[in-house]
Amino acid sequence: MNQPAAHMPAETPATVETAAEETFLPVSGAEARQRDIEKTKREILNRLEGYTPVRDITNLPEDRLKDRYVIHCDQPLNHLMFGTVKAYAVTDEKGENANLYAAVCDPSRPYRYRNLKALEGYEHNHIIRVIDHGITKVSALEENRYVIIYEQPKGKSLAQLMQEGAKFTEGAFVETVMKPVTAVITSFEEMGINHCRLNPYNVFVGEKTVVGDCISQPGGFSNDFLYEPLERLLTSPQGTGGGTTKVDSFDLGVLAIELMHDLGKFRELDKATYTGLILSQGTYNIMTPGAKFSEGFLDFLIGTLSDSYEERWNSTQLNLWLGGKRFNLLRPTPPRDASRPYEFDNEEFFSSRALAHSFFGKWDAARNVLRDGLLARWMDQSIHKRDMADLIRRAINATG
User: Fold this and answer.
1) What is the DSSP letter of 131?
2) Is 65 within 8 Å of 88 (Cβ atoms)?
C-alpha cells in the first residue's frame, strides 16, 4: 500500500535565501559581495540582541575604605581624572574631613610609593593633603583597586582659568603661580621626591594656590609631552624614572609660557615632530620667539627651560631669583656640533642628535643613504669625531 506523500511546507523567502547561501551556485563578484554584506548585517544584529549594557553607575552600591570613607562611584569628578586614574567623591563618615575624593589607581600603572610615604600625614599650604589610602572594591570598575583619599582642591584649575579667558602678566604669574609652586619644589627637594605633573590641569587657584595629585600614576604616562624636558622626551614612559625637582623647574618655565603666550601651535604637533624641533633648535628658542619678556624674567626662562640637565635650575636658583638676584644669563644658541650641515630628507642638520632622531623616524629613507659613506665623512670632518666615524664605517661594512 502506497504511503501518503509527506506534507511539504511552502518555502518562504527566508528559507529560499538561506538555501541559496548554503548552495555553491555560481554568482558574480558583485552578488557575492552583497551576499557577504547581508550575512554580516545579520550577524551583527544577532550579537546586538544579546548585548548586555554597562551597569548603570547611578545605581551602584556604596564602596567603603577602612569602614570609614564612602566612595561614591555615582559622583565621578572628571576634572580630577588623568591618564588612567579615576576620581570619585568621598564622604568621611566620621565627619572629620569634608570635600574629599578618591583617586583610583590603575594596576597597570604603579603608584609612586616614595611620594606616598613622604606625603602621608604631611601638611603644606600649597599641596593637597593625603588623607588615607588602601585597597577596596570599586563598584564602577567591578574590581578591587588601590585608592588614595585626598582633600579636594578648592578653586579652579589654571586650565579652566585659561578657558575662561584669564590673562597672566609676569607679576601675576610670579605671585599666583611661581611663589607657591617654588615653595612646593623646595619642600619636595628636601624630601628627595619630585612632582612630575605640574601642568595647567593640576595646579588650582582659589584662596590659595595648590598643586594636585603626584602619587596615583608615574608622571611619564600621563603628563603632556610639552611638559617633559629633553632627557625624558627621548625615552619611553616606562623609562623616564623618577627624576629630580629639575623636572618640576622645567614644568614651571613651560607653565609661564603657556599662561602668558599660549602653546597652541605646539599642540598641533605629534611628539616625534616636537622632539625633532627641540633637538634642532632647543626648547627656549622654539618657545620664546616673538614673545616679549623683561630681562629679569628671561633669566628665569633661560634657567628653567635649559635642555642641559646640569645647567637647569633647581629650587636654589628659583628662590634666589624670587629674592631679587639677577643672573644675566646668555640666551642659548641652537644646538650645533657640526661646522657644515648634513643633508637628509630635504633638511639640513647641524646636530648629530637631531640627525639620529630623524633617522629613527624615517628608517627606510635613512637605510638608503647610509651606505654612501657621507655620514662617516661628515662625522669625521665636520664634527671631528674620528672614533665615531670609524665605528660607522665598520658597522656599514659588516652589514654589507
Assistant:
1) E
2) no
Of the two residues 263 and 319, the one the predictor is more confident about is: 319
- Label residue 150 by pLDDT band (50, 70, 90): very high
**Each residue's pLDDT tens digit, 162-199:** 999 998 999 999 999 999 999 999 999 999 999 999 99
The pLDDT mean for the chain works out to 87
Give me 38's grid cell: 547581508
What percentage of the chain exceeds 70 in pLDDT? Answer: 88
Query: Taking 70 as the threshold, does the pLDDT of residue 87 lie above it?
Result: yes
Record the cell numbers describing residue 147, joined without a space.
585608592
| Exposure on the CB side of residue 179, measured as CA atoms within 13 A | 14
Closest residue by Cα to residue 156 from 201, 190, 113, 198 = 201
**Least confident among 50-59, 221-230, 303-312:** 50-59
Measured distance CA(308)–CA(295) in Å, rounded:
21
Q: Which residues contact 1 (CB under 8 A, 6 or more apart)?
A: none
- Contact between 144 and 95 under an 8 Å Cβ cutoff? The reply is no
Backbone dihedral angles phi then psi of residue 368, each to the nearest 5 degrees: -75, -20
Question: pLDDT-based confidence at 60, cuts 50/70/90?
Answer: low
DSSP 204: E
- Beta bridge partners, 146, equal 135
Sign of CA dihedral 272, 276, 279, 285: negative
Which strand ranges, in their side-by-side order, compose the sheet holding 156-157?
156-157, 203-205, 209-211
278 close to 305: Cβ distance less than 8 angstroms = no
SS3 labels along 358-394: HHHHCHHHHHHHHCCCHHHHHHHHCCCCHHHHHHHHH
What backbone phi and psi angles, to 5 degrees, belong to 280? -85, -35
Distance CA 304, CA 177 (A): 15
The Cα 249–Cα 306 span in angstroms is 10
pLDDT value at position 15?
Answer: 41
